From TrEMBL:
Gene3D superfamilies: Enolpyruvate transferase domain (3.65.10.10). Residues 7-408 form the Enolpyruvate transferase domain. This is UDP-N-acetylglucosamine 1-carboxyvinyltransferase. It comes from Puniceicoccus vermicola. The lineage of its organism: Bacteria, Pseudomonadati, Verrucomicrobiota, Opitutia, Puniceicoccales. The active site is at residue 116.
């Protein structure tokens, strides 16, 4: 197991390129099960989650070939209906196989999913949607068993306590594209990753109306064809590096997702005194001036992304004044707070909000990553902390950021990935 050591205080200069969107690739991989023809998926990031999804597809019968340079070929000529616990438990997005297997075979047996520990993320809306398509759904011994042999189109409302469900929308889309009749999905997720999935399904022959809106209308067809598709750039990775530039007061270029995917972040960054310019696929960040504290609330797209809340928390931790960050998607998503406090941040949790009082500086410390986005927040904190920051459990980071340590090092940061055995024993409380 590796650790990351960061020596803080170095400005960043140069260009960072974001990879393909992890949250697009995973459901798109699942959608490849909907056809027996070959699918070519491009701009695929090299991430542990992607490799896990590839293994799951192979288990259910698909041929999965990674060609290099972000190109994968997937062909599912024959498909089995069961996705086992030993694979599915490692990654929540594997629940997307539920919809694709129902869409391809009319049945599915999928283990309840795993993933990050960031609070409850129930799948009741997924199951409600499948039942609205006249599927029989049972939960037994930790498995979801779906019989969709008599499925037909219907009306589905996917609104929940914290808004629409992204993976639930993906599942219903994949189940509905081959379901006889017309399916109307209300309160569908509008995230760019869902738009990207709709683009793939459309190229495969699916008939979907209202793409990008909260109402999706799907006209079922008998079979889908293969596809050649380039995945969108990752808006969360792009946003993370924009925040890194603001945090370090650096002039940095970031190649990645466009403003249409990052409107809420763009607005908050400008409100915080950070100058962002986007031109011809490239962000330019000018962040040498004074920063201003901001309040924000995470909301479904086009609201502020929950996946950037932890990174903004780090930025506000060293911004003079008081900020309030409220989490409306996953109210328990503050696992990074206690670790930032170890580095000297002045943070307090009040219900679903984090009250941030900006401090002059952070201090390097040994910290523990608890989930994917918390890991990124700790890396950002290390970039501006005095002394050395040691981040443990960096396998979380590898789930969503392709070679983050290398990308930051290429623009001037002192970031090093080391075997865990090289971490000083006194930092672990050992003699």
């Amino acid at each position: 197991m590796d650790v990351i050591r960061i020596k803080g205080g170095r400005p960043l200069k140069g260009r960072i390129t974001a990879g393909g969107a992890k949250n697009s690739v995973l459901p798109i991989f699942a959608a490849c099960l909907l056809t027996e023809e070959e699918c070519i998926i491009r701009n695929v990031p090299d991430l542990s989650d992607v490799r896990y999804m590839g293994r799951i597809l192979e288990h259910v019968g698909a041929s999965v070939v990674e060609e290099g340079d972000g190109v994968w070929r997937i062909r599912a000529q024959e498909v089995r209906s069961e996705a086992p616990y030993e694979l599915v438990r490692k990654m929540r997005a594997s629940i997307c196989l539920l919809g694709s297997l129902v869409g391809r075979l009319g049945e599915a047996k999928v283990s309840m999913p795993g993933g990050c520990v960031i609070g409850p993320r129930p799948i009741d809306l997924h199951l409600k949607g499948l039942r609205k398509l006249s599927c029989k759904v049972d939960v037994e011994a930790g498995y979801l068993q779906v019989d969709g042999s008599n499925r037909r189109g219907g009306g589905v409302f996917l609104g929940g306590r914290y808004g629409s469900t992204v993976t639930g929308t993906a599942n219903l889309l994949m189940a509905a594209v081959t379901t006889p009749g017309t399916t109307r999905i209300e309160c569908a997720a509008c995230e760019p990753e869902i738009v990207d999935l709709c683009a793939v399904l459309g190229k495969m022959g699916a008939q979907i109306e209202g793409v990008g809106s909260p109402t999706l209308i799907v006209h079922g067809i008998d079979a889908l064809r293969g596809v050649d598709h380039t995945v969108i750039d990752d808006r969360i990775e792009t946003g993370t590096y924009l925040i890194a530039a603001a945090l370090t007061g650096s002039d940095l270029e970031v190649k990645g997702a466009p403003p249409s995917m990052l409107g809420a972040l763009h607005d908050k960054m400008e409100e915080a005194g950070v100058d962002l310019i986007y031109r011809e696929g490239l962000w330019t960040v000018h962040a040498s001036g004074p920063r201003i504290p901001v309040d924000l609330i995470t909301l479904p797209h086009p609201g502020f992304p929950t996946d950037l809340q932890a990174q903004m928390c780090t930025l506000m931790a060293v911004t003079p004044g008081i900020s309030v960050l409220t989490e409306r998607i996953y109210p328990n998503r503050f696992m990074h707070v206690s670790e930032l406090q170890r580095m000297g941040a002045d943070l307090a949790i009040e219900g679903a909000s984090c009250i941030v009082k900006g401090v002059k500086k952070l201090s390097g410390a040994p910290v523990m990553a608890s989930d994917l986005r918390a890991s990124a927040a700790l890396v950002l904190a290390g970039l501006v902390a005095d002394g050395d920051t040691w981040i443990q459990r960096v396998y979380h980071l590898d789930r969503g950021y392709q070679r983050m340590d290398e990308k930051l090092r290429d623009v001037g940061a002192s970031v090093e990935r080391l075997p865990a055995a090289e971490m000083p024993k006194h930092l672990l409380g050992e003699d």
